[in-house]
């Protein structure tokens, strides 16, 4: 039972590390200061998730008790990272690509944590995985909203708009 949770946590750490590296790369590649800052903030959030999961891994590995108190967090608030009005329209093409990839990554993370919650036999672990899924849903919703706005702007800028 505990081994299953440890494997899930290990996979979660890898997922968060990949997200961290992706957002760092996006931060380095974009020139718009507000987008740069937003991607850096996302990278820092992923780093917090990594640290959180590592701590959880150690507690689960080293204890027979139900020590998953981290799972008792409230629903995460939106980090309110992206502000549409601050986006430099010249970086819309890069942003559309990055947001599209980000949406895919966040969607897969949500699915991973939801499935982990279903598979776990430890009640507190299920709660933790549900919380992590909620965190990733916040990112997914944010990305989806901004992606739609960026995509419409990009289509108009390229002269492909159907109107």
UniProtKB/TrEMBL annotation:
CDD domains: Ferritin_like_AB. The lineage of its organism: Bacteria, Bacillati, Bacillota, Clostridia, Peptostreptococcales. One of its GO terms (molecular function) is metal ion binding. Pfam families: Rubrerythrin. PANTHER family: RUBRERYTHRIN-RELATED. This is Rubrerythrin. Residues 7-146 form the Rubrerythrin diiron-binding domain. Gene3D superfamilies: 1.20.1260.10. InterPro entries: Ferritin-like, Ferritin-like_SF, Rr_diiron-bd_dom, Rubrerythrin. It comes from the Bacteria.
């Amino acid at each position: 039972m505990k081994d299953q949770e440890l494997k899930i946590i290990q996979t979660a750490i890898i997922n968060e590390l990949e997200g961290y590296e992706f957002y760092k790369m996006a931060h380095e590649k974009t020139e718009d200061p507000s987008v740069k800052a937003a991607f850096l903030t996302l990278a820092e959030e992923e780093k917090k998730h990594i640290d959180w999961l590592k701590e959880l891994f150690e507690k689960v590995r080293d204890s027979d008790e139900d020590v998953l108190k981290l799972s008792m967090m409230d629903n995460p608030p939106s980090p309110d990272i992206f502000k549409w009005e601050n986006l430099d329209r010249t970086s819309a093409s890069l942003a559309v690509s990055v947001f599209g990839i980000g949406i895919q990554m966040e969607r897969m993370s949500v699915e991973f944590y939801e499935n982990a919650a279903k598979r776990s036999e430890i009640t507190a672990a299920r709660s933790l995985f549900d919380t992590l899924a909620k965190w990733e849903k916040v990112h997914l919703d944010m990305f989806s909203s901004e992606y739609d706005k960026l995509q419409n702007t990009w289509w108009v800028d390229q002269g492909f708009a159907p109107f």
